[in-house]
Specification:
Elements lengths: L6 E3 L3 H6 L1 H9 L5 H10 L1 H11 L4 E2 L6 E2 L6 E2 L4 E2 L1 H5 L7 E7 L4 E5 H17 L7 E5 L4 H12 L3 E5 L5 H11 L3 E5 L1 E4 L2 E4 L1 H9 L6 E5 L13 H4 L11 E2 L3 E6 L9 E5 H15 L7 E4 L6 H7 L7 E6 L9 H9 L3 E5 H9 L12 E5 L5 H11 L4 E4 L1 E3 L4 E5 L6 E2 L5 E2 L5 E4 L10 E6 L9 E2 L6 H7 L7 E9 L5 E6 L4 E3 L2 E3 L1 H8 L5 E8 L9 E7 L7 H14 L8 E4 L13 H8 L4 H4 L19
Organism: Microbispora triticiradicis
EC number: 6.2.1.16
Keywords: ATP-binding, Ligase, Nucleotide-binding
């Protein structure tokens, strides 16, 4: 067992001296600690965010309005300014490598910045021919391929609004999302490959298009070689004509894209972010917290249906080369992504925490990562053992950055910074400009105790609105109902006296046993340390102040049985490492743990099912990675 807080890495003087955040602090004249700069960034937000605009030389006009006007949830940023995301993302020397694409079959494509600019110009001209203009929506049903990045930048250059779903989403899930925003154009693939298999999506695309009455065209990308239906333009048709690349500069809060909540328990919330907020936030986060810039190769394993895709392509803003990958993380073996990183000279490797844990359990020993400086982990809390594995098997010199944030802000608000050490299970800091606190039930800020993660001051990348929410009621109810004027994110967090943070999982799926509250991540850390356990889910069925049953569901590793001995060892470990109150009443084997398409465990829907909600009402199967396992949690199964 690895002790939480064990020191694993410290920045050397050379690392600190070379860090981009050090040069920023020197420019500002700040000679204090990171914590001093963080306090300034949240106490003087106008000065801080102005400094970000100036330091990076954001292209656009600042205007003469106030930097920030009003308070949450109605804060307005940089009134009178005008800019365009694509114009900022596509600046730089045309000869530098901007994008590299790989897929699981080994195919590879490389694009210079000049080549990307030309492709964006061509697709922009094609969208104009289809009638797309300022404020129109372009929807995409595409994997993580260069065409997705190019089409997004072309859409943004027009001041039109982008929205994407991965082609592993089912038709109902896609129409639940896209129908809300009424797109003018749909860009879609005929299929995709994953895990060595081809998946034809032609009929699904036709079904989706048939339920979007505002469409003027469906543009087909032939990933599997199918011809476009009669009358439908192909990707080659869209990019057939060149026109000079131009950028429509728009107000700071003009919609850039629409992202969506998971949609597993209701209609997905269409979350709208603005050009300016994303440009400033991603420049700050990628450059200072992940230390990315020119010469870096930036990779994050993601699909176009997860906000990490939007974050990944933000690497262009920082001047990094963006590595796109389409395929399974574990094909032909668990080491697939590490091999990719070695072959492409990745300097920053990002993935979900479950992949790091899976690599640890599979005994993967990554090799050839000579250029790797940083590893990012997100999606769920990474246990201390995962931290320790990185430093024992990947290398002692890398900076492991566990991030926590979300689709809601399209960034992390607690994460790493090159100036601070890495300790097992601990996120080093609250990010610049993110006024993160831990609240007790009365709304008092607490240190050293687990509480609700809240944000007490506005951030420019907070949603500018929810689509089709003109009154703002749905937006306010989502984040501001519990603490008026304060953003409640829905996670448990403990903020340590030195500013480090520990995330304990969703606060709406807390284990409350005998008055002792505990986040589910602590439970999973104990259970999933067992080699026999591939995955797990814990549910407390208590409600309305009454203590219910504590149920543990486990998926076993190949060749393992849920024996009396294993059950006894699990119970003993939980009693010893957590408390007698947290020993499960029952332990059940299931064929899989239900997860969203972005890999999050579905604790709340399973709890509803166990309490009698019909399976199809408790969760939207089309928003899940493995909907077939849900029925195993029904009481009558």
């Amino acid at each position: 067992m690895v002790e939480e807080g064990a020191l694993l890495w410290e920045p050397t003087p050379d690392v600190v001296r070379a860090a981009r955040i050090t040069r920023y602090m020197e420019r500002l004249g700040h000679t204090g600690t990171y914590e001093d700069v963080w306090k300034w960034s949240v106490e003087s937000p106008a000065d801080f965010w102005t400094s970000i605009w100036d330091y990076f030389g954001v292209i656009g006009t600042r205007g003469d309005g106030p930097v920030i006007r009003g308070t949450m949830p109605d804060a307005e940023w940089f009134a009178g300014s005008a800019l365009n995301y694509a114009e900022n993302a596509l600046r730089g020397h045309p000869g530098r490598t901007a994008v590299v694409f790989r897929d699981e079959s080994g195919s590879r494509w490389q694009y210079s910045l000049g080549e990307i600019r030309e492709e964006v110009a061509r697709v922009r001209a094609g969208l104009v021919r289809l009638g797309v203009g300022l404020g129109d929506r372009v929807a995409a049903y595409v994997p993580n391929i260069p065409e997705a990045l190019i089409a997004f930048l072309a859409t943004a250059s027009l001041g039109a609004i982008w929205s994407s779903c991965s082609p592993d989403f089912g038709a109902p899930s896609v129409t639940d999302r896209f129908a809300q925003i009424e797109p003018k154009v749909l860009i879609a693939v005929d299929g995709y490959r994953y895990g060595g298999k081809a998946y034809d999506r032609s009929e699904v695309v036709r079904e989706i298009a048939g339920k979007l009455p505002t469409l003027r065209a469906t543009v087909w990308i032939p990933r599997l070689g199918a011809e476009a239906p009669d009358g439908a333009p192909s990707w080659d048709d869209l990019r057939a004509e060149f026109a000079p690349l131009e950028f429509e500069r728009v107000p700071f809060g003009h919609p850039l894209w629409v992202l969506y909540s998971s949609g597993t328990t209701g209609l997905p919330k269409p979350i709208v972010h603005g050009h300016g907020g994303i440009v400033l936030e991603h420049l700050k986060s990628l450059s200072f917290h992940q230390d990315l810039g020119e010469g870096d190769v930036f990779f994050w394993y993601t699909t176009t249906g997860w906000m990490m895709w939007n974050y990944l392509i933000g690497g262009l803003l920082a001047g990094a080369t963006v590595l796109l990958y389409d395929g399974s993380a574990a094909h032909p073996g668990t080491e697939a992504l590490w091999r990719l990183a070695a072959e492409e000279g990745v300097t920053y490797f990002g993935t979900g925490a479950p992949y790091i844990v899976a690599s640890m359990k599979a005994g993967v020993k990554p090799e050839g990562l000579d250029r790797l400086r940083g590893i990012g982990s997100t999606g769920s809390p990474l246990p201390p053992e995962g931290f320790a594995w990185v430093y024992s098997e990947v290398g002692p010199g890398v900076q492991l950055g566990s991030f926590s944030g979300g689709t809601d802000v399209c960034t992390g608000f607690v994460g790493p910074v090159p100036l601070l050490p890495i300790r097992a299970g601990v996120i080093p800091c609250r990010c610049l400009g993110a006024s993160v606190e831990s609240f007790d039930p009365s709304g008092a800020s607490i240190i050293g105790e687990v509480g609700e993660l809240v944000i007490t001051r506005p951030m420019p990348s907070m949603p500018v609105m929810f689509w089709n929410d003109p009154s703002g009621d749905r937006y306010r109810e989502s984040y501001f109902a519990d603490y008026p004027g304060v953003w409640r994110h829905g996670d448990w967090i403990k903020i340590l006296p030195d500013g480090g943070c520990v995330i304990y999982g969703r606060s709406d799926s807390t284990l409350n046993r005998g008055g002792v509250r505990m986040g589910t991540s602590e439970f999973y850390r104990v259970v999933e340390r067992f080699e026999e356990i591939a995955d797990s889910l814990v549910i407390d069925t208590g409600q309305l102040g009454q203590e219910g049953r504590l149920l543990l569901f486990v998926t076993l590793a190949d060749g393992t049985a849920l024996s009396d001995d294993l059950i006894s060892r699990l119970r003993t470990a939980l009693r010893t490492e957590l408390s007698p109150r947290h020993v499960p009443d029952e332990i059940h084997e299931v064929p899989g743990i239900p997860r969203t398409l972005s890999g999050k465990k579905l604790e709340v829907p399973v709890r509803k099912i166990l309490l009698g909600t019909p399976v199809d009402r408790a969760a939207n199967r089309d928003a899940m990675a493995n909907p077939e396992v849900l029925s195993h949690f029904a009481p009558d199964h």
